[in-house]
Amino acid sequence: MFDYLIVGAGFAGAVMAERLAGAGRKVLVVDKRNHIAGNTFDYYDPAGILVHKYGPHIFHTNSKEVFDYLGQFTAWRPYEHRVLASVDGMLVPVPINLNTINELYGLRLSAGEVEDFLHSKAVKIDRVKTSEDVVLSKVGKELYEKFFRGYTKKQWDLDPSELDASVTARIPVRHNRDNRYFTDTYQAMPAQGYTKLFENMLHHPNIKVMINTDYKEVEDSIVFKKMIYTGPVDYYFDYCFGKLPYRSIEFEFQTYETEVFQSTGTINYPNEHPYTRVTEFKYLTGQHHPKTSVVYEYPKAEGDPYYPVPRPENAELYRKYQHLTAELNDVYFTGRLATYKYYNMDQVVAQSLALFKKIMAQEKETVLRPVPVPAVTNGRH
């Protein structure tokens, strides 16, 4: 007898498993893949270099609770990610900031002047509805064409004018010289990698793990009380309303006979190349090695589901599935795939920590709720 069957061994499922096991619950975690750690799974390639199987994952958060929680299972290596974009034959910093503008146009603007410069380029848009609107209203047509349009078209196979404003709404434009890709309070990488972090998280006598396992193949032969589901929500309901659209990525790994391949962790290629970006892992991991390994990312329509496609009709389709989830009392849906939303890693962890607290509160309420005593009439119930 298991108290919980947890579907998925990524962050959403592993956090739930660790918390529930620590609270004395017996947990079974199952995952279709042949490994734990979900999309953050890392391993040593044939050259002996630690790489991320599903593309680069850089941890960053403003939540002390999330950072300290994960810090129980890993030491942290401080790391601030920096990204350059290949534009007009130059490598310039992104997000667009004061350095980007000065390098691109050969100027020597100050912070105040660059704000005026961008304001002069911006297109006045009365009602911002699409990703194109967001960028044009921030930086104007020229920078939109150089940095955003081609990259977005490759990433989504849609023009930015066809995409929801949320895709580019959170892309910052800075008026200072801050070249960091993220500005979160806590920026670090697990010192021994993500897989080791997950191994530590799931190492508990109350946790059993089954990999290479589709939960639908075993759920009828396993006795459990409740389910935590972190897989694709449409798969849970057998695609009864149709498949939710995702974009996927093909990863091409290369090892080079040199210590350093490129000048920063990631370089974006918005325009002429078929790939969107190239990441060199040793920047992320801090590993010292005479060779180096990189990954090229080619967006595609089919494959593992990575990015929900943010269009109104897809949101409406998800809402149909969401209504079905609300009708289930013994199944909890958490994580990216189960909620059809692109979360950062720390957001997934925070979501599962919150769900654990909710479940514990519900269990306590059930235990404390008084059992009604039947009325007695004439000595008989």
TrEMBL record:
<dbReference type="Pfam" id="PF03275">
    <property type="entry name" value="GLF"/>
</dbReference>
<dbReference type="GO" id="GO:0005829">
    <property type="term" value="C:cytosol"/>
</dbReference>
<dbReference type="InterPro" id="IPR015899">
    <property type="entry name" value="UDP-GalPyranose_mutase_C"/>
</dbReference>
<keyword id="KW-0274">FAD</keyword>
<keyword id="KW-0413">Isomerase</keyword>
<comment type="similarity">
    <text>Belongs to the UDP-galactopyranose/dTDP-fucopyranose mutase family.</text>
</comment>
<dbReference type="Pfam" id="PF13450">
    <property type="entry name" value="NAD_binding_8"/>
</dbReference>
<feature type="domain" description="UDP-galactopyranose mutase C-terminal">
    <location>
        <begin position="146"/>
        <end position="342"/>
    </location>
</feature>
<dbReference type="GO" id="GO:0050660">
    <property type="term" value="F:flavin adenine dinucleotide binding"/>
</dbReference>
<keyword id="KW-0285">Flavoprotein</keyword>
<protein>
    <submittedName>
        <fullName>UDP-galactopyranose mutase</fullName>
    </submittedName>
</protein>
<dbReference type="InterPro" id="IPR004379">
    <property type="entry name" value="UDP-GALP_mutase"/>
</dbReference>
<dbReference type="GO" id="GO:0008767">
    <property type="term" value="F:UDP-galactopyranose mutase activity"/>
</dbReference>
